[in-house]
Automatic annotation (TrEMBL), chains A, B:
Its EC number is 2.4.2.22. GO terms for cellular component: cytoplasm. This is Xanthine phosphoribosyltransferase. It comes from [Anoxybacillus] calidus. The keyword Cytoplasm applies. It is an enzyme of class 2 (transferase). HAMAP family: XPRTase. GO terms for biological process: purine ribonucleoside salvage; xanthine metabolic process; XMP salvage.
Amino acid sequence: MRELKEKIMSEGIVLSEHVLKVDSFLNHQMDPVLMKKIGEAFAEKFRDKKITKVITIESSGIGPALMTAYELGVPLIFARKRKSLTLNSDLYISKVYSFTKQEESEITISRKFIDCSDSVLIIDDFLANGQAALGLIDMIQQAKAQVVGIGIVIEKAFQDGGRILRERGIKVESLAQIASLSDGKVRFVEEALAK
Amino acid sequence: MRELKEKIMSEGIVLSEHVLKVDSFLNHQMDPVLMKKIGEAFAEKFRDKKITKVITIESSGIGPALMTAYELGVPLIFARKRKSLTLNSDLYISKVYSFTKQEESEITISRKFIDCSDSVLIIDDFLANGQAALGLIDMIQQAKAQVVGIGIVIEKAFQDGGRILRERGIKVESLAQIASLSDGKVRFVEEALAK
């Protein structure tokens, strides 16, 4: 997606070989027009899949996922990162390890919002090791619902997540695929292939 | 806002005299069409205020705030509930006590995203004791930016937050004002006045 890659090139900050900071338009400050275009792009890629629910994890996934759900005309569910006092019964629960935060958290979805009749599209802001996506897939499978695909805003293609998910036969669509963050520079997968 | 009140009446669950659960369309599952209408309603109420930024707190505020920011054509910033490894320098910091979760958390906004030239609209899903809004106001004032108003999806008018904020001279616009949750029933402020 051209607008997204341009935004990454102009505003993304390479913090290390593994960490790209995009807090000016996605992870802390959000560009609503770009989020809308991201939602349209995902809806376009998955429109033929008869999706009934979009699912993401709080917090940075909510923006792109909400815009996608709006375009597809279905509800969005955002998995909670831990139980709150008002959401404590009848939950699907899975564990997710965050390498960025170096901690394991529990993610939960209320059982009443997915069931075996659902066809679910997962949306998330980043795909790195795939831990978050695997946790969401685990809960969707607990509900006996179908995972019809995964839409990722920025895939760090040099990490394992994309391969693991695609080897499971899941359709993964990433709007920007980063081949490398070496030397403080963002290289997209297309550039790598063009060499 | 009629659609919102109808949704609260049909899907809201009164858990106690103080707690209304709206996780089927706002706090866990989100209705994107309703979020869009909420965004349009807030934009309408604050369109003459020359707003430059919309600010909320993760997570449930992000949906309504993103749609509002989209309508107003300005960026959204969501305050983080604690420091993450990739957002650790140059932060505005404030403390917020959550009566629902019975815990104090630190909320943060990166200094690079607000400054003295900003006119900020705060958007949040609930207003109860006003702690979250006061924390956001504190950070906006640290930035020497101007708070031009607060848009609340559901105000629990029987708690103190609305009064505290309005006594400070802040324009607070709530799309639904709840007068009472007694006897397991939602009563809106308009109904109370009509008696």
